[in-house]
Amino acid sequence: MTLSRDHKQLRISNVFPMDLNFLLFIENIYKSYYGEKQVFPGRHLISNGEELLEAERFNEILVTCWEENVRELEQQQYMVKPFNPILFRDHYTNLFRKDSELHTSERVWNTFSLWWWSEYGIKTYMERYTDLFMPEIVEQIWKGLYDKNIEIDDGSSLYIILLFKQPDIVLQKNTNKLFFSSINNFVCKKEKIVNEIVDLFV
Predict the structure, then answer these.
(1) Does the pLDDT at position 90 exceed 80?
(2) Which of 85, 111, 116, 165 is deepest in the core (most CB within 10 A)?
(3) Side-by-side strand order, sheet with 156-163
(4) In angstroms, rounded to a whole number, what is the distance separating the alpha carbons of residues 118 and 198?
């Protein structure tokens, strides 16, 4: 979707990066083992806790993987066809114990892929649901920019990165190019999101 005023343009799109959502999927598996309660997908994808890293080590690797993927997103926005889905990455094996012979990372990836890509999967749900709200949010962003007399360069783009849950460990670093939001916040806290996005352009 594109908004324009006085020949200035800001293209705003909702994007659903598979990699970041996969990392959050794994975060929930660890949370189910090391936390106080079960969260989707729970423990059933892991045969036993010996497949898992110690919590502190996992947190370090998760943050590293997240930051690497975000850097790639920052580069992809300048491509002709940005944000294409990416296949399994070798470094995802580091999120589980290497001495496990159960191919844990590949098994979890395959399960996640089915949940992500199926006709009634989470990606389809998030796309259809957020598409309903995008016109309203885009208009409100433009109104906020107009009210604050904020100038936008021709050809500027903002990508709203949608996540199936709010991260527990990683820190989301919003910019006026990439704005991160959980699906729940996107639906329930639209006014707050609009204000935060407008403030990124100040």
Answers:
(1) no
(2) 116
(3) 2-5, 8-15, 156-163, 178-182
(4) 35
User: Can you give the pTM of this predicted structure?
Assistant: 0.89
On the 0-12 / 13-18 / 19+ scale of CB atoms within 10 A, 33 is middle
The mean pLDDT value for 102-119 works out to: 88
Alpha carbon separation from 158 to 137, 174, 179, 196 (Å, rounded): 12, 11, 7, 13
Which tens digit of pLDDT belongs to each residue from 8-43?
A: 578 899 999 999 999 999 999 999 998 878 999 998
* Mean pLDDT value across the chain: 86
Burial zone of 93 (CB within 10 Å; 0-12 exposed, 13-18 middle, 19+ buried): middle
CA distance 122 to 153: 34
DSSP letters, 140-161, are HHHHHHHHTT----TTEEEEEE
Helix axis angle, 122-147 to 104-117, nearest 10°: 70
Q: What is the mean pLDDT of residues 177-201?
A: 94
